Amino acid sequence: MVRIRFLALLAWLLTLLAACTPAPTPAPTSSVSSTATPSPTATRLVVTPSPAIASLTPTATPSAPRPQTVVPPTPVPTPGPTVAPDVALRYVKVRRNDVLSTIAARYGVSIDDILAYNQLADPNQLAVGQGLIIPYHTQKYTPARIIIADRELVDGPAYLDFDVAAFVQQQPGFLRRYRTRAGRSGAEVIERLARQYSVGPRVLLALLEARGGWLTRDDPQGMARARPMGHLAGAEGLWAQVEWAADTLNRGFYGWQDRGETAIRFRGGRILRAAPGLNPGTVALQVMLAQDVSPEQLADELRAFSDAYQRLFGAPPPTDPTPALPPGLEQPYLQLPWQHNQWWYFTGGPHGGWGSGSGWAALDFVPDTPSVGSCGPLETWAVAAAPGVVAYSADGEVLLDLDGDGDIRTGWVLQYLHISDRPAEGTWLQAGDRVGRPSCEGGIAAEAHLHFARRYNGVWVAAGGAIPMELDGWQAHGSFEYEGTLTRGGRPSRTACDCRQRGLNGIVW
Fold this sequence. Notes:
By secondary structure, the chain is an alpha+beta fold. Among the domains are: 33-44 and 144-313, no CATH class; 344-507, Glucose Permease (Domain IIA). It contains eleven helices and 24 strands. Strands 8, 9, 11, 12, 13, 15, 18, 19 and 24 form a nine-stranded antiparallel beta sheet that branches. A four-stranded antiparallel beta sheet has the order 20-21-22-23. Strands 10-16-14 form a three-stranded antiparallel beta sheet, with no helix packed on it. A hairpin with a 5-residue loop joins strand 6 and strand 7 (271-273). The longest helix is centred in the middle third of the chain and has 20 residues, at 238-257. It starts with 19 loop residues before the first strand and ends with a strand.
């Protein structure tokens, strides 16, 4: 196993950098034939705690692939983050005009605890967007039953033989005849969001059935029709509800697995600690369902999901200690994703590959161009960091499949986002071939830039984690979103900054 430094518990917190968030695709309005209202990780996580929090030693071991033959579940608990017996941890960001007293009051913790867990350089100087660890003292735990395997939660190899459209057409419920006004089917909504967020479509479909009955009920009404995922705070409609669910599932999965987050917040604000023996896939379900229920209701909601899954797909695949990413997995050599003899700037440290909830798999770069603040497209080209086939090319995104089979659910896949002038799907690229020009396409972006991320077997691989992103020897570090550094041998490190200073964040090769 690869030992990693869990810097989120140690780092001196810096200013939030270089906003880059893949935008939620606008929720399409919809219509149906009747009146509708639609709209693994790789490794065991070992913490190196500071003296102030020496009792914290998170570990997380993902689980095995879904077997070809459905068998009765025999869950094997996997060690999750283990912290002090009465402490649950949560990651938050500093808001405008915040001071420690307001943060402590907002989250119901003491100022002393915030200081102890964050080692603030100057507690009187907080920056907007700065990350903080919030410790909650509680001896209350979520249910300890493992519900779903990690690889079932991720849109990876477990889904190679699953056809979403064919399955939906076999069901008698509302989803089968649902259409957006642009003509997109319900199955297409599930497929697209499962691909973008890399969340297993069977999990999304089971949640849609458990919470809204859309797979078996012909004409759901009221809340089930308007909010089919049961989410009360967000927008109505299928697209908005499923997108929220996918992002929140990712937040639970990667928060537990990569970042050591153990606090689960329920509707009404109560905090419970996720049971230490859970796996990331089950924690993901608990985090998502908790947003709209009380702690007393969670067990029933989990049971409803399990029942819906079994009705639709048979018994859930069992979990076991095999990691979702193989032990000893190494990243293949990747060159810097731009041409030789060009200066580019490192503007965003590790952050969400797709949405803020997903694994912090992405880094941001901008080329040295006079078009500061422009959405381009710029004249400078991003290039292939390794040989591969273009498996997807649309909506500002290129997915480069390095194993060459054209399926983004297997092997290493490189994501290029905010890209125009893209190559066609099926194009084979050699390292250094043009992928596209930086722009603002495909998401929320203040200016044209390249958002670059990795997946392996569908898992977002944390850029600053156990298998750090390495680009021509430059290795990524960082544990708070958008913050981080790149280091290479004896060269001066490069610090992520929403700026263009060659000595601070500039790289040329």
